[in-house]
Amino acid sequence: xxxxxxxxxxxxxxxxxxxxxxxxxxxxxxxxxxxxxxxxxxxxxxxxxxxxxxxxxxxxxxxxxxxxxxxxxxxxxxxxxxxxxxxxxxxxxxxxxxxxxxxxxxxxxxxxxxxxxxxxxxxxxxxxxxxxxxxxxxxxxxxxxxxxxxxxxxxxxxxxxxxxxxxxxxxxxxxxxxxxxxxxxxxxxxxxxxxxxxxxxxxxxxxxxxxxxxxxxxxxxxxxxxxxxxxxxxxxxxxxxxxxxxxxxxxxxxxxxxxxxxxxxxxxxxxxxxxxxxxxxxxxxxxxxxxxxxxxxxxxxxxxxxxxxxxxxxxxxxxxxxxxxxxxxxxxxxxxxxxxxxxxxxxxxxxxxxxxxxxxxxxxxxxxxxxxxxxxxxxxxxxxxxxxxxxxxxxxxxxxxxxxxxxxxxxx
Length: 412
Fold this sequence. Notes:
Elements: H1 2-5, H2 10-44, E1 54-61, H3 68-87, E2 95-102, H4 107-120, E3 125-127, H5 132-145, E4 149-150, H6 157-160, E5 167-168, H7 174-188, E6 194-199, H8 202-217, E7 224-228, H9 235-244, E8 249-252, H10 256-268, E9 274-277, H11 284-291, E10 299-302, H12 312-324, H13 332-351, H14 357-365, E11 370-371, E12 377-381, E13 384-387, E14 391-397, E15 400-408
Parallel strand pairs: 1-2, 1-3, 3-4, 4-5, 6-7, 6-8, 8-9, 9-10
Antiparallel strand pairs: 10-14, 11-12, 12-13, 14-15
Helix pairs in contact: 3-13, 4-5, 7-8, 9-10, 10-11, 13-14
């Protein structure tokens, strides 16, 4: 009864209840506003994989299997850059963290690696991946998650024609590379019977088609073409078949695990055709180390200046290598990992503190004749994600790369 007597009048309840309800509504509105502001901060500020202290990046490379001779040094170069830039304070105070997955140079493994990097590791971007077919296999996942796959070590045409927003390259297209190789063989070396040794998959298909089309420009046909898949194969038979076709120039567009056995067998048979090696094995140091005397005299189409060049950025690479890996020798693939990371770091720095994936792509697309030193000038736009327009043609002499043409482009 006492409790009943203590109750306020009904009108009082309504008045105070109304005030309480209004207070709750105000608090709810404030909470909603705070929530919206937090969401806005996520959208307008840092993106997935970015915190106040770090930027998490990913890559997938062949770290085991035959193609590891390419993948491992690329990763070493990327880690070298991480050490270098983090010691300088990172990107706007954020340190770089790199997560690497082994795709064994297999498209199916690359697809799974991309899924892990996106959904488990939650990286901001994927950088420097090696295999074009693998990136193509993972393209649906990349586009669905809107995760940039930037500056890969491939120029597979299907990745760039037409341009895809979340795939941004840096090296000249395979078709243009083949045009340069055929032009040089025919116009500079005077060769008429060309052989193209390509590798299995989409890259090989692009190279074979481009070679046949470019040969027609000169009224020629490709005398011999083969796509290699198994590293353990009969190289003696392959070279003998080319000789039977009276080939006078062999263009090899495969990665090192095939290229080196081919040039060694050419030497073993005492055959003397001109040999042009594409940027897939455009590593003078690796060719000299693995190919030995068989590499001497070979021409190589590279996407950049050799690692012993008198170039400001390449000097910076050599200094970083000496500091963080004392005694290690400069090599092309190691340099590429370092350089690809640097391109991404430049773009992220230009974006500013509020780093997002969309801003990163917009920034790169704004580069017009952007000077990189080692790569020359690169240009991008929403419809052009290739970047580079030229190659560096070298010839192996004394185990080193002698520059023949620092600015090789397809002839008109």
